[in-house]
Write a structure and sequence with these properties.
Structural class: alpha/beta
Distance between the termini: 13 Å
CATH topology: Rossmann fold
Largest sheet: 5 strands, parallel
Helix content: 25-40%
Number of helices: 8
Radius of gyration: 18 Å
CATH class: Alpha Beta
Number of strands: 5
Strand order of the largest sheet: 1-3-2-4-5
Oligomer: single chain
CATH architecture: 3-Layer(aba) Sandwich
Number of domains: 1
Shape: globular
């Protein structure tokens, strides 16, 4: 066994793993439209795959929990099939999961998120549940730390949803998510209030995704590749594991 994934273990195996495990990774995704060329389970599947790979990097110190496969996605609701949670619903799910993990002795948690729409909710969850449950809760985006590869190879001025980055990650981690014969560039709307409300602007606010892109994606998925996905994912995993060993004060040479 090279990863303590709770979904694949018996309780006896879990009990044995507690001799070395010090924290848990909770993968968090979403169920929402991803344009004409990606399955709506994309974020949940990529979160799960990344969590398992990170669990391998952190073995034998980490549990990987079941995936929270829905998230905060109201901005995608006008595309058929999207299922969205309220922010307080997601926090309630995480509260129950973390309380259960704490009962088993796990007091440090990483929320590994693959959906940008969850980030503000996870910020609140980290702050409130850390105090409420007396545990240490951290959160991270799955591949946001792959800054070198993304900066070098992603050329679209606007990207981040069913784009060359995300499709590449899927081609490496879960190619079944991608419809290769239907890849499209984002159909970006030149006019609209979304330009004034985007993250990073002085004033931010809610807008529906179709106000920005008519086909539900941004960036240029036609430029995606397995090789780019591999480079992004592996750089992110290296950075995440390095930072986790440092933040959690784990000696990575022990048990290896």
């Amino acid at each position: 066994m090279d990863c303590y994934n709770l979904t694949k273990m018996t309780w006896k195996e879990v009990e044995e793993s507690l001799k070395t495990v010090t924290f848990a990774i909770i993968p968090i995704g979403a169920h929402e439209q991803h344009g004409p060329h990606m399955a709506e389970s994309c974020d949940a599947v990529l979160a799960e795959k990344m969590a398992e790979k990170l669990g391998q990097k952190m073995y034998p110190h980490a549990w990987v929990t079941p995936t929270v496969n829905m998230g905060v996605s109201p901005h995608h609701m006008n595309f058929p099939g999207t299922i969205s949670l309220q922010p307080d619903t997601l926090i309630s799910i995480l509260r129950d999961m973390i309380e259960s993990l704490s009962h088993h002795g796990i007091k440090k948690i990483l929320l590994l998120n693959s959906h940008g729409g969850n980030q503000s909710t996870l910020n609140v969850a980290s702050m409130t549940l850390t105090k409420e449950l007396n545990v240490d809760i951290y959160y991270a985006k799955t591949t946001a730390s792959a800054k070198q590869t993304i900066g070098e190879y992603i050329k679209s001025p606007l990207f981040g949803h069913s784009c060359e980055r995300e499709v590449s990650e899927a081609l490496y981690l879960a190619p079944e998510l991608v419809r290769l014969n239907q890849l499209e560039k984002g159909d970006i709307q030149e006019l609209g209030r979304w330009k004034q409300l985007r993250p990073g602007k002085a004033i931010q606010g809610f807008y529906f995704y179709e106000e920005m892109t008519q086909n539900g994606c941004i960036g240029d998925a036609t430029q995606a590749s397995f090789e780019l996905g591999q480079q992004i994912v592996e750089e992110a995993l290296e950075n995440l594991s390095k930072d986790l060993y440092s933040v959690l004060k784990i000696n990575k040479d022990v048990y290896r």
